[in-house]
Amino acid sequence: MKRVRLGVAACLMMLGVSGAASAQDPEGMTDGMTMEMGGGGMHLRPDGRAPIGVMGDHVPMEGAWSITYQFMRMAMDDNRSGTDTLSDAEVLTDFSIAPTRMTMDMHMASVMYGWSKSLSFMAMVPYYDKEMDHINRAGVRFTTKSKGVGDVALKGVYGLYQRQDHNVLLNAGVSLPTGSIDKKDDTPAGLNQQLPYPMQIGSGTFDLLPGLTYRGHTSDFSWGGQIGATIRLGRNDNSYALGNRYRTTTWGARKWADWISTSLRVAAEVVDNVDGADPLLNPASVPTADPDRRGGTRVDILGGVNLIGTAGVARGQRLFIEFGIPIYQNLDGPQLETDWLLTVGLQFRF
Question: pLDDT under 50 in the chain at which residues?
Fold first, then answer.
């Protein structure tokens, strides 16, 4: 199954960057500046930024700073194994507890600095608030909760190629194990119980964050694609490593006026199962505690709106909104399936 996933991930990544080939014309190349520095004033267009769900899509002007606040809510309901939805009763035939619903809120603050015309650095600090509902074989329903600062990410974005209407960016970074992997809560099994993998806040490992982004535009349209991954480096102090994640996305946007654009985006992610196991968890009690039931593939379709201020103190400041639903899920279940996700962001530059 892992080999199949890697194959799917490779195919998805190839699709995500297929548009970049049209940019490999040496004629018209500049000195490596990104769209922020060139490209016909893209930094003041509403679609001068990718949809809010895409990070590392530009390099700000040399010496410029930007601060972004992002809120994301993901709602999960019902269990799935493969592509089939399972009832609670079906899950409870194999496990003493079935998860029934989960919500995850993420607040993330990020800071980006333009080091040079072609290089920028950014830091991202997430804060998670998670809640999961359960039912056991006795019909008892209960809820577990966890919250806290997640893994801090440090990234660099480098402009590999720039032409008037195309650019390619290299993303490279590392995720630091600042989030907790020891969150506990009360359950019918006892007080202060170790929570399963999806209810932990961090990974407990140092992770590599490679990626590649392509963007292009005309006077009223823009488009792009990005591939990326999260590669775990070893196991954490609880004897496991979360599964590697492989992501690809492609989008198109339409500028309707100087202050507003809309976008349509498709995003796919392949997730490996957990490597190792937390010795404090019983994989026979609940699917979320089974390290072999955390992987899967999901494809989402998302619609977005980008707004930008055009005058006064609001000039260049941005508001982003994006809403999406899955169109395909194939999970190593039983595992809660995603219902929808909403992301809202504010960006200030100076």
Answer: 1-35, 37-40
